[in-house]
User: Fold these one by one.
Assistant:
Number 1:
Amino acid sequence: DAGVIQSPRHEVTEMGQEVTLRCKPISGHNSLFWYRQTMMRGLELLIYFNNNVPIDDSGMPEDRFSAKMPNASFSTLKIQPSEPRDSAVYFCASSLTRGQQPQHFGDGTRLSIL
Amino acid sequence: DQQVKQNSPSLSVQEGRISILNCDYTNSMFDYFLWYKKYPAEGPTFLISISSIKDKNEDGRFTVFLNKSAKHLSLHIVPSQPGDSAVYFCAASTNSGYALNFGKGTSLLVTP
């Protein structure tokens, strides 16, 4: 079975540019999460969707960050304009919502803002 | 503030011996605990979990122990193998929540 698929795997861009990260969750999973991993703060939840609806975006650091889930099989995380401090690895994860279920992660997007 | 703490950044163990990775948490509302394994340039991979109604869960070479009174859990790997060398993350969530609170990870090196 295909796992969570993220693209691109690596992104290098100059500050001020728009960055779009993409995620395809595991088929049948109705919860989707975006995380950011940095050396200083570790893995942090940015936003959580349930049945395509954003439930909690309190982890989104600034208004420059936005996320959408137009359907059950696709989500985007956008940063506009990007800044060097946004450099990190961004992970998408999905899970079933019923009961206590583990989240399954994609391989992440390593983002470098110059 | 960090609600899940892994106080050992690294651990080195000989092949065939037991690896014990530790995790402490501060939020008494946590009732679901997970361990993830992460290789470089890959995402975290779910390894094993435990509900707060249990104190032990076993899956092959991996066993997780939960001590609720001490707010402590541990992952035992027996016997350790070189392929187990990875970063291990402890995570926790509440029954009413969904967000996983992660520790900062312990890098395990299993030497032949």
Number 2:
Amino acid sequence: GDSVTQMEGPVTLSEEAFLTINCTYTATGYPSLFWYVQYPGEGLQLLLKATKADDKGSNKGFEATYRKETTSFHLEKGSVQVSDSAVYFCALRKRAAGNKLTFGGGTRVLVKP
Amino acid sequence: NAGVTQTPKFQVLKTGQSMTLQCAQDMNHNSMYWYRQDPGMGLRLIYYSASEGTTDKGEVPNGYNVSRLNKREFSLRLESAAPSQTSVYFCASSEVPGNTEAFFGQGTRLTVV
């Protein structure tokens, strides 16, 4: 079945450091790929998405590129802030089978001042 | 603009008790989902409803039942709660096709003692 694997956390960084969270997927067909973010005590919210190979999603300084050849969708940010401390989830979704999202295990990121 | 509303936000149950988690969305979405979130395991799909009148099992359906009451509402029932069902439960909704985002509720923190 479909699956998403992302690097385990926690990831601890200093403010203004570069952030990378690795995400790889296994799926048949052509899934859409998403990054969701969960701030403390809140539900998940969409951070960015890419719907086909070589698409780049971007939002709030975060970027991720859909790489079909390596089945990856790594999340990057050039200069993190304390407010970026959260749990980040990589996910895939396909048109078939109810359009349901399949999530990775989540990566907790802690940014220290 | 309420989005996805879940009730209750917190609940403590004794083993063997039953309860229903409520979820409602006001975005006229066709698809609705119930996930559980456990530490280190990301979000796992319990049940989903691709459209009004249909429900299907997800990854971890045992011990749960669902009802798609109408297009807006999708409830999750625990008939006989067990400590293994201690978790945070999220309801989500989305429109088709599969490249659109899913919107999440704030979550229900359930503890079974």
